[in-house]
Amino acid sequence: xxxxxxxxxxxxHGAGRPQAMAGVDNVVALARAAFPHAEARxxxxxxxxxxxxxxxxxxxxxxxxxxxxxQLREEGFREVVVQPLHIFAGSEFMDLxxxxxxxAGVQTLDPAHRPFDLLVVGRPALGQPGPRHPYLEDIERAAxxxxxxxxxxxxxGAALCYxxxxxxxxxxxxxxxxxxxxxxxxxxxxxxxxxxxxxxxxDHVRRGLAGLGAGKVLLVPLLLxxxxxxxxxxxxxxxxxxxxxxxxxxxxVRCLSRGLGEVDAFARLFIDHARDAAQDAGFAL
Length: 285
Known about the structure:
By secondary structure, the chain is an alpha/beta fold. It is built from 11 helices and 8 strands.
């Protein structure tokens, strides 16, 4: 039976431990509240995370994107927004977009046999290149959503340092643009943005903090969830973690081991981008 309402598929990398999924769960809850007319569901873009989550919970995890879309198709949903819960347009976002573009481009003699009437993809939190939605405006809105972190750092007399995931296939220059906009919006609080993968790594951050003459730093994962990277690589106790390395440099380090999805102001960026994607395609969620 053809559904008379749209579907919203939220696509997250996810986390292998259920307690680390709080950031994802919060975005899903906010989306369902924002779009009560739409069918809002979750899929996980990382197969390894799905396996780890199944192992840790003993339950069936959320499906991957292809299965989730197939399920929506079989249930009669013809208008679908896929909203990535990625921070920036990296490799997982590009692969998800390619999958959706492939399905959206299927042409059949009978229109009823097409996978969907409309299948569109929203922007990640920090936006993406393109003429319709200037990505610098998206970055500025993300910086505004991080005002609570700035206030914490200011109250502690600390520099603010974000550790994003990054990647080795795409430019991580968007992190530098976020850092620049944070400096413009909050000039009284020094802010650095680095990445676990890519050019702007831990050495970049250490040099930046040394140049600032910082004695304290508030270290925050620039990640949707506080999963393995946050707990181990960023906020871990060992000297090979960011927190351990900065402490070895003589800094007083406090880690905010929290996913950005748990921050309502940041989570709502994804809600706004899903709404934009539907409106751009000519329908409403």
